[in-house]
Specification:
By secondary structure, the chain is an alpha+beta fold. It contains eight helices and eight strands; from the N terminus they run αααααβαβααββββββ. Strands 4-5-6-7 form a four-stranded antiparallel beta sheet. It has a two-stranded antiparallel sheet with strand order 1-2. The radius of gyration is 52 Å and the shape is rod-shaped.
Length: about 450
């Protein structure tokens, strides 16, 4: 006992000296008061609020997309109704032209028939007068005056033959005029029938024009109403996005406080460890084992304990709000997208940083599995174990296809919800799982 007491005193003195030296040499976080340390409940509540806001934004984004799709469909209907109006207007113009031509033909036929009738009536009057004269003279010659001034019997006979010829020509002319009147009457009847048909077509064309105008106006009214609804949804979405931003800022503030507290705590533990190591070195300066222990104690392993479903979901969740960019995303985070020559280019994906659907899966799984998934949803479908959709679990990948060809992938997070990078113009979001077009198998990697 008498031998150990000096060593104890020495250790105590050395420890006090080390702590004094550490306190005088250290002006870091440990020397300052402990920063605020939000509780786990506060952090979870903040994250839950942010997740809820993100889910609301995602749900409303779907409604906005549906409203926009309906608006586009209505715009197509307006275009179609406009073209139908143009067609009805053209058909009305053609019907009006046809009716005008038929009216002109009917008027001409009537005029011709009227003229023919006047000529026939005049000829009839002359024939009647000739016949009356002949009847009074008891002859077809027509009048005794035809014989006045004849110089001889031969002259008298010649005049009788001439009058006979004239009366025959008049009768022939009468027959010709009657035939002409019949032809004109037929033409007049045909013209009037054509006019009646043209007027009927015109009436139908006018009715079609009225119907087309009404359909066009109805389409415009529907488009305007849908545009109003879409605008209201956009305003509501903007308000929810503001709430989401505020919720994320609040969570980031709490997480920042927690991080500063953890840094302060770690610094304090390092200083205490250094003081203890100095005290141990003072007690036994010749012991190399102490140095070895000190070295090993100051180099804690930073290797990850292994991937987990929770880590994958948290990593994907950390990118909520990052814009969609076709071809974007890798194991390190969002990247500039690539050109597709179509829709993605119209949204400028090739010059914006973000994720597409398969790029987000690469980023979410990379640390957990130690390698990058292929940047193609069709290949990711072959990257793990397929399980029936009814048996899906959080962390499984869900896939959608059209005509058997996979075109989208998302990460299932439980309770019927998923995280996805949806489409050009959108952003990484939490949304309800869509059943339309979904593959009957999920893919499980962990």
């Amino acid at each position: 006992m008498s031998i150990r007491r000096p060593v104890g005193r020495t250790l105590f003195v050395a420890l006090l000296a080390a702590l004094t030296l550490a306190g005088s040499a250290t002006t870091g976080l440990a020397a300052a008061p402990a920063p605020p340390n939000p509780s786990d409940e506060e952090l979870e509540a903040g994250r839950a609020e942010a997740d809820s806001a993100a889910a609301r934004v995602g749900t409303l984004a779907n409604r906005v997309a549906e409203a926009d799709a309906q608006l586009l469909a209505l715009q197509d209907q307006v275009s179609l109704a406009h073209e139908e109006t143009n067609r009805a207007l053209l058909e009305l113009q053609l019907a009006q032209d046809e009716a005008a031509a038929a009216q002109a033909a009917a008027d001409a036929a009537q005029a011709a028939a009227d003229a023919a009738g006047a000529r026939i009536r005049d000829m009839q009057r002359r024939i009647d007068e000739f016949a009356a004269g002949s009847y009074r003279q008891h002859s077809t010659i027509g009048s005794v005056t035809a014989f006045l001034g004849s110089d001889s019997p031969e002259d008298l006979l010649a005049r009788a033959e001439l009058l006979e010829s004239i009366s025959g020509s008049q009768l022939d002319a009468l027959e010709d005029m009657q035939r002409a009147r019949t032809v004109k009457a037929n033409k007049d009847s045909t013209a009037r029938a054509a006019l009646a048909d043209a007027r009927a077509k015109q009436q139908l064309a006018e009715q079609a024009k009225v119907a087309a105008d009404e359909a066009y106006q109805s389409a415009i009214d529907a488009e305007n109403a849908q545009a109003g609804r879409a605008a209201q949804l956009q305003d509501r979405k903007a308000d929810l996005e503001r709430q989401l931003y505020e919720a994320r800022q609040a969570v980031q503030g709490l997480e920042g406080q927690r991080q500063r507290y953890e840094e302060w705590k770690a610094e304090r533990e390092r200083e205490q460890a250094a003081a203890a190591a100095a005290a141990a070195a003072t007690e036994s300066s010749s012991s190399s084992g102490s140095d070895s222990d000190s070295d090993s104690g100051s180099s804690a392993s930073t290797e990850p304990a292994g991937g987990s479903v929770e880590a994958v979901i948290d990593r994907a969740r950390s990118q909520l709000g990052v814009r969609y960019s076709w071809g974007g995303g890798d194991a390190d985070g969002p990247t500039v997208g690539i050109r597709d020559g179509g829709v993605a280019d119209s949204y400028g994906d090739y010059r914006n940083v973000g994720f597409d659907c398969s790029g987000l899966m690469i980023y979410a799984f990379a640390p957990a599995i130690g390698y990058s998934l292929p940047h193609y949803s069709g290949a990711q479908y072959d990257s793990g174990t397929r399980v029936p959709l009814s048996q899906k679990q959080p962390g499984d990948m869900l896939f959608w296809a059209t005509d058997g060809r996979i075109h989208h992938v998302a990460l299932y997070i439980g309770d019927g919800m998923m995280i996805e990078a949806p489409y050009s113009g959108g952003e990484v979001r939490i949304a309800p799982v869509r059943t339309s077009g979904i593959k009957s198998y999920a893919v499980r990697i962990l």
